[in-house]
Write a structure and sequence with these properties.
Elements lengths: L1 H19 L4 H5 L3 H20 L3 H4 L2 H25 L10
Amino acid sequence: MAASIVSLVLWVPQVRKTWSHRNNSEELAGLSVLTQYILILSQILWLVYGVLISSFWVWSSLIVNVPAAVLTLYLIHRAKLRLRAAGEPLPAPEAI
């Protein structure tokens, strides 16, 4: 249970930044898409493991983390489309 809570708490700053800059294409285009996909993959693996050992708390953090990652991917994609439509160069992703 503690690991699920820590996983959720660590993700809050990313979600907050994404939501607060949702209309700022330059800020969002610099976010790492790879990080979002890694998060989703890790949550799926925790889900499989949690189901195999019949433990809700092992996979419970995906209830919040996966929708947040999917929303972040959508907002990043939308930001990149807006920048391309405006003819602006895409910023480099931030270092992980």
